[in-house]
Design brief:
With 145 residues, the chain is mainly α. Helices cover 68% and strands 0% of the residues. It has 7 helices and no strands.
Length: 145
């Protein structure tokens, strides 16, 4: 029996949907397990969702694992994961890496990345600025202008 790649992706998508539902219901261990299986099958949305679950939902956060899955998602073609990696660097105040991941997200077709990149590469004073998003923790006081 030959398993087609499309069949694998369909199953991974179904697993992602189950994981998402489990997460919404607060069943985080189940969600993590389902996201992991879907991610291992190569489903980039599951990789991204797993990373967010590991870093932003499950306590204590597991940042290293989250970054691993985000990078795998980027390798699988997810501009959303590249954006999320850029946002991690923005929050940490690491401009060079912020621009690096924004550039990748932009090249992958993420419109928001292109807009953020224009500010990050031309405005030294407010390189971190994003429309409608509060400044990162390292910014003290209002600095937009």
């Amino acid at each position: 029996m030959t398993i087609r790649e499309s069949d694998v992706q369909i199953e991974a998508c179904k697993l992602w949907a189950e994981a998402n539902e489990a997460e919404e219901r607060g069943r985080l261990i189940e969600a993590e397990a389902l996201y992991t299986v879907a991610a291992e099958l190569g489903y980039d949305l599951a990789m991204n969702s797993l990373a967010i679950l590991l870093e932003d939902v499950i306590q204590p956060p597991r940042a290293a694992e989250a970054v691993y899955w985000l990078k795998r998602a980027v390798d699988a073609g997810s501009d959303m994961a590249a954006w999320n990696l850029a946002m991690r660097q923005r929050l940490a105040g690491r401009r060079r890496w912020y621009i690096h991941w924004l550039t990748i997200a932009d090249q992958m077709g993420c419109e928001e990345a292109g807009q953020a990149l224009a500010v990050a590469t031309t405005r030294d004073d407010i390189w971190w600025a994003l429309d409608g998003v509060p400044p990162p923790p390292f910014v003290k006081g209002p600095r937009l202008g």
